[in-house]
Each structure stands twice: as C-alpha cells, then as structure tokens.
Amino acid sequence: GCHVIYGLVGLKTHSKITLVVRREEDGIRRYVHLGTGNYNDSTAKLYTDLGMFTARESYGEDATAVFNMLSGYSEPPFWKRYVVAPLWMKDTFLNKINQCTQAAKNGSDAHIIAKMNSLSDKDIIEALYAASCAGVKIELIVRGICCLRVGIKGVSENITVRSIVGTFLEHARIFDFRIDSEEEIFLGSADWMNRNLEKRVEIVFPVADEDIIRSIKHYLEVELEDNVKASILLPDDSYEKVKKNNEAKKNSQEIFVKEAKAAYENAVKAGKTEDGRTFTPLKGE
Q1: What are 109-161's pLDDT values in tens digits?
Q2: pLDDT(277) > 80
Q3: I need a labelling partner for 136 at 20 to 30 A (CA). Which of 3, 18, 101, 228 fits?
Q4: DSSP string, 77-134
Q5: What share of the chain is helix, strand, coil (3-state, %, to 5)?
Q6: Which of 36, 6, 14, 71 is CA-nearest to residue 195?
Q7: Could you tell me which of 134, 140, 132 has the C-alpha nearest to residue 176?
Q8: What does each C-alpha distance from 19 to 26, 67, 81, 162, 222 come to in angstroms?
C-alpha cells in the first residue's frame, strides 16, 4: 500500500528527494535522487532543472534522516551532506559567503556564482554586498525577482546580475563558491528568499562527483555567455539585452538541446540506448 505523509505542520515541503531502499546480495543499499525541480510530468517538459542520482552511503543516510524528520519520528543531531531548511540552510549560506569575504580580505581570489529563481532575502543580500566590498567577484543568474541593487559605488561594484528567459522556464538552483583552487558546488530546491530559507522544508546538497562538477561548471559557463536570451540588470533596476559586439550568437538553451541530442546519438551509436541503460552505484561516502 501507499502511506501518504503530509509533512510538518505550518511548513511547506518544497524539497525534491526520492529514496529507494533495496535488499541486494551484499546487503541493504539506498538509492537517492535529489533535484532542483518538481516530480511533475507536465512541468518537466517546460522547466530547466538538474538532478543527481546516487548510491553514496552518506547521501542515503541523510535521505533516511529527512524522511524520519518529515514523518515526525526523529530529528537528526547533524547532517553528513545535506543542508536543510528551515533550521540550518540560511546560516550555511551566510557562512559560505562570509568565507569568501574573509578570503578576499586576506588576498585570495574569491568568486561566487549563483543561479536561482529569485533573490530577496535581506541577510543574504547584505552578505553579498559585504563580499563585493571585500573584492569577491559575484555573478548571479536570477530569472525573476531580484531585490539586490548592482553598480552602487562602494557597495555592489563587483556584482553582476543576469536573467535568462527563453523557450523553457529556467528553474535550477546552483551555488558555486570558489576560493583560489578550492571549490564547492551545491544544487537544491531553495531560492535565496526568506520564505525558502526560513518557512519551508528545503534541501541543498553538495556535488562530490568530478564528472558532474565539470558538467555543472560547463552549464554555468554557457549561461554566463548567453547573448541571445539573457538580459543584464542595470543600476537603475531596469534590464537591457546583452550587447553582442559582433560576437557569434550564443543561446544557452539551444546549446543544451543540441548537446543533449548529440549525447543521445552517440549513445545509440555505442549501443547504449535506453533499453540497455543501467545504473552503476557510486561507492564510498
């Protein structure tokens, strides 16, 4: 049968997570899917989202803890991988931004790239302003509401904001924190809004696999180079289209569609079609 849990009273459950527990030859194994988008077959055809499928033990243990928390059985004393709202997420993001701020003050090269639907949380915005003042390069991809002001002398001169509106609704949330050669990338369900960080159940998770990290960095690079569907936020809060300056047209969504088609065609040629696709679990933590 199916047991439906309606979540925690007073909080909207906005996280996107699936846990499958299987008894296999070598024991119990947990398979976890985490994503930025809804499990909805209609919006899946219209939204751009990212997801990760893993069998890493630490991700599985955290997934079990999430469902125990939602069902009211227990609250974990700590999380191995996940960053969960409404209790832990905002402080974690502020800490990551502040780490970049301190690193820049100490002479390191610090860089923040963040992609989301909307940005309105006052504390996050103030932390980004402080990071900008310290010399952190901040590149934001915000499709919708953005309460941060760019181009304010002595406040936000190192911050750029772009919005991409194309055929598909930009819906992924990506948070990339870089200090010199060190880098942490997170995906998840939360925007930098008060309602997401303090009034909803949300999950943001770090990406550990190097191949996935390279894919996400490529995704961000292509979106930051978009000069067809991207608009740039100006100091007067208006937007203007990116000036091409005789550069070749770069439509990020069209590029991703072409890459997906090419990957599928290569898989067909190699005999790795959907009928023969298998999932090999990543081992370790």
Answers
A1: 999 999 999 999 999 999 999 999 999 999 999 999 999 999 999 999 999 99
A2: no
A3: 228
A4: S--SS-EEETTTHHHHHHHHHHHHHHHHHTT--EEEEEEES-B--HHHHHHHHHHHHH
A5: 30, 30, 40
A6: 14
A7: 140
A8: 19, 9, 15, 35, 32
Distance CA 85, CA 72 (A): 16
Q: Which residues are marked as active site?
A: 14
Q: What is the DSSP string of 259-276?
A: HHHHHHHHHHHTT--GGG
Q: What is the DSSP letter of 36?
A: S
Nearest Cα neighbor of 122 from 234, 197, 204, 178 is 197
- What residue type is 235 in one-letter code? P
- pTM of the complete model beyond 0.70: yes
Average pLDDT over residues 160-167: 98
| 3-state SS assignment for residue 74 | coil
Domains with residue ranges and CATH for the chain: 82-268 (3.30.870.10)
Instruction: Classify burial at 188, counting beta carbons within 10 Å of its beta carbon; exposed 0-12, middle 13-18, buried 19 or more.
Output: buried
Residue with tokens 């960080």: 197
Helix, strand, or coil (residue 220): helix
CB atoms within 10 A of CB 210: 8
Contact 56, 34 (CB under 8 A): no
How far is Cα 164 from Cα 219, in angstroms, rounded to an integer? 13
Q: The tokens 């969960």 sit on which residue?
A: 84
34 SS3 class: strand
